[in-house]
Amino acid sequence: MLFQFGFYSSLLLITFSQGILYSILLLRKGSKSGDKSNYWLSVFILVCSLYIAPWMLGFAGWYDNQPYRDILFYVPFQQLYLFGPLIYFYTQSLLNPNFRLTKMASLHFLPAVIFLLWNLWIWVYDYFIVNCNYFYADGTDKDFDAWYQYSGFGSMVLYLVLSIRYYNIYRVLIFQVTSFAESILFDWIKKYLISFLILTLLPIAFDVLAYFLPEIRTYAGSWWYFLAFSVVMYYIAITAYANPVISKIHFRLSPFDSGPVVLLSESNVRESENIIEIEADIIKKEITPDLKEWILKMEFLLKEEELYKNPELTLSDVAKRLSINISITSKVVNQGFGLNFNDLINQYRTEAVVKCLEQGLHKNTTLLGIAFDCGFNSKATFNRAFKKHTGKSPKDYIADL
Fold first, then answer.
1. Fewest 10 Å CB contacts: which of 46, 57, 62, 301?
2. 285 in a domain, yes or no?
3. Which GO terms describe its molecular function (predicted)?
4. Which whole-number Å values give the CA distances from 221 to 8, 48, 204, 216, 227, in the listed order?
5. What is the mean pLDDT of each run of 10 residues along the chain (401 residues)?
6. What pairs with residue 263 in β-bridges?
7. Same domain membership, residue 204 and residue 142
8. Cis preceding linkage at 260, omega within 30
């Protein structure tokens, strides 16, 4: 097979081959762990690798030699309509164990399928009907047509917005239903969304740069864009492979409106009883007699039975202890206490730590040990919660005793 090694082709070959390698590794990791999010990212990295292939192979001499030139022309290496849906579904599968690709969700791939069929028709027409390069008479690769590049860019922007919105809803949800929200915010998700944002902004950045350096618009100048793209792709691949993100919160939501989130459980509970209004204002409203009764019962569980000491306490756990559904429990927390569930439990944990400090227990044991005994699961979470509820850091509070 023809491949002319040079500075331009060799550097892209390194990132291309690494992309293919990590695509295989992620596929293998998903098969072993059962985590389907790895499958989505595996395909995404593969599509990214194919995206840089025309420039890598072009500098390797393919555009100047047959049949390699026709391979570059008739094989649609740049699948721009796949980038967005893949990263969007990766986000969902990463954050929501309940995510499944439904028939309706499959429609997100319709533009990519249409583009593939269009390229198939071009190949069939040129090779088997007119027996000449009718569609490629001008000698330019259809992958780089302006309409396709701009519409592909628009698709990436749209799905980036949807992915960010999905993550933001997840952030609000976990503060409503868990007492350990900060430990499952997953910094990796923010990093890869920022990385995808960089991939999306790279064309704009190079267009701006081209106003000052016109040579950027040449074939050789464009190589720098593909190198930058491949470096970001490589970063996503290696960090994703090494990052274990496991979400345990099953839910269902509509990505296109601000409606309620449905928590999904294995029990035979009616769906209406598992609805969480995450967009609702968390303020103390007029308390009905029924709601007041549940507030008192919840206060008893938290104060007398010290449920807050469970570092993995969830809204569902409290609902089971109260023998009511999650929807009512959520209203008790939001309307009765004027807080989300995470802040409410951390408030009780902080009060327990303060009580221990006032008793002088910190003189005989470590501050972190006290925090863990009171239900906190990390030093960072403890410090933030303590400062939020007391207005002082733990060390400053001890100094003022």
1. 301
2. yes
3. DNA-binding transcription factor activity; sequence-specific DNA binding
4. 10, 20, 15, 4, 11
5. 90 95 95 90 96 93 90 93 96 89 94 95 91 81 90 96 92 90 85 93 91 85 93 94 78 66 57 61 65 90 93 92 89 89 96 94 91 94 94 90 76
6. 251
7. yes
8. no
